[in-house]
Amino acid sequence: MHVPTCDTAQQDIQSFSLALEEALRPQADYNVSHWLYVPNRYCDYRYILGTRGERPLICVGINPSTAAPNDLDNTLKSVERIALGNGYDSFIMFNVYAQRATRPDDMERSCNPCLHHENMAAFRWALEQTKTGTPAVWAAWGAIIEKRPYLTDCLKDMLQVGQELGARWFSAGARSKKGHPHHPLYLRKDSGLDPFDVAEYINSCL
Prior knowledge:
By secondary structure, the chain is an alpha/beta fold. Helices cover 28% and strands 15% of the residues. It has helices at residues 16-23, 74-85, 113-127, 150-164, 198-205, and strands spanning 35-38, 48-51, 56-61, 90-95, 136-139, 168-171, 194-195. Helix 3 runs parallel beside helix 4. The two termini are 29 Å apart.
């Protein structure tokens, strides 16, 4: 369980570029040739957690919880299984908002512009890691996106970055009655990916 100690605006937020630089150096706790973990320490926010490859599936949740390299939670284990099962060689777990909170109700009430800016830099970098084909983004946030009004604005910025880099969006499993994409946790391990029109989703469901 992770409960934020305070709003991220009261903390020094490390830039994604600096955090990435540190994360790519050899680590005592995990193999950096296999894992991506930015920042490379446990704190109140996380930009990226995943594995290294040339054709990653970028899964997008709402906000990070407690997972770390060599210690994936059940959601991340499902993400990895589905990525590999659909022909990707790796996965990158990203989130609409980077604040770590096990319970979405504990997320801060207002968006921290600094944290969001750095999170968008992380998203752009993640998309650029696809070396063959076009970047693949798996929308997997469920109805939790309704928890905070600013999450929709964050998603709109993600859509713009994705359009610039030619990203293709997908969902997995049945969508909710309101059209929200399914959360990864309770998906079948052999679940396939379906095209997901994120722009239409934003306009009609949020």
